[in-house]
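User: Good morning. I'm curious how adenosine-5-diphosphoribose would be positioned relative to this chain. Could you predict the structure with it bound?
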Amino acid sequence: MKTEVAIIGAGPAGLLLGHLLRAEGIDCVVIERQTGDHVLSRIRAGVLESITVELMARLGLDARMRAEGLVHGGFNLADGERLIRIDVAELTGQTVLVYGQTELTRDLMDAAGPRGLEVVYGADDVALHAIDSDAPYVTYTCKGRARRIDAAIVVGCDGFHGPSRRAIPASAGRVFERVYPFGWLGILADVPPCNHELIYANHERGFALASMRSPTRSRYYIDVPLTERIEDWDDDRIWDELAVRLGPDAAAHITRGPALEKSIAPLRSFVFEPMRHGNLLLCGDAAHIVPPTGAKGLNLAASDIHYASAALIGWLRHGDRDAIAAYSDKALARVWKSERFSWSLTRLMHRFPEDGAFERRMQVAELDYIASSEAAQRAIAENYVGLPV
Ligand code: APR
Ligand code: PHB
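Assistant: Good morning! Here's the predicted structure, ligand included:
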């Protein structure tokens, strides 16, 4: 089989890119290891920056998110009993849209068939070949049959554990990584949120986050040591810990209910440079990971796709090969700014095992500064709503 662009991975990055290319009449195929149901079963963050909403709007796929998503003009930092509201609407003129990644992925998946976007699910043993040549190709097996897709270029949207980044010779790339000494235990429940906006809390017992999916479905997190096992956390223990860490006002409004899902995920900051090697581009989690503090993961994938789709259209429709050459530097410029914000907010809102009294004083001083400075709040707000692309 021949195509113009072979996309590996049918998560939000791969599907968004596939739709943007098809909208320009560019031939592409998305190759996904899992089933569509498995992809949709993943619970991920759901705070969308304007770039993510705008790309869906450009595709005419924003109707459901505008109908069901929640427009948020602010979020909160809690430090013990103090609640600092960051009024992002007032400070930046922008808002964020609370809409689950699962729902965004569903919108993209549902539109694939009607729009002629070919997605191969259940592709095993996906491998990249000749990415340094002008004739790269991808091989895989599906239903026991060996398949091959020849393309002009391959785009790795296959997440942190996919094969694309590993297809680049180690000598040609560089890894920057920080693994955090805790994980996030998340619980999803069909109960109303305790607050109409998000609350990130730094409590002496640890971090907590109150988030939501809708007015009737809440998503909460607490940080736990990496040695913790989810089997040791029954629902009541999680609700009890949330009530303490979020502070008395929030606790008074927490509605408890059975967990629809609960799990522990590790946190890391990770960047692979460059995000292009020959005729392979990397997008989204295939190239970078952020800690979820600040909800940048999906939005960074979207900005990568914004740059990658423009470069691919420029080359394949207008002969501008320079756009492909410029992709990595352009994408990385925004990646690093989001990495910094996510790392910084993680540092501010978590108690690190290695920290002492001085580091805690630094957190208190920074929160005092944020509480008293419009300039400090604006700096946080413009990162939270998303820096310009
Ligand atoms: N072959 C084919 N597909 C693969 C392979 C493989 N060997 N390995 C992984 N994949 C698929 C995964 O099954 C997944 O569907 O690639 C897709 C990658 O999707 P994501 O991990 O969601 O990454 P991305 O599309 O970049 O979206 C980033 O997703 O994980 C969250 O926090 C992250 O919100 C961020 C967003
Ligand atoms: C979520 O709603 O799952 C969420 C929100 C904000 C974050 C992380 C996760 O920073």
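The domain at 5-49+100-177+268-344 is CATH 3.50.50.60 (FAD/NAD(P)-binding domain). Residues 45-47, 198, 209, 211, 219, 292-295 surround P-hydroxybenzoic acid (ligand 2) (CB under 6 Å).
Let me know if you'd like a different ligand tried.
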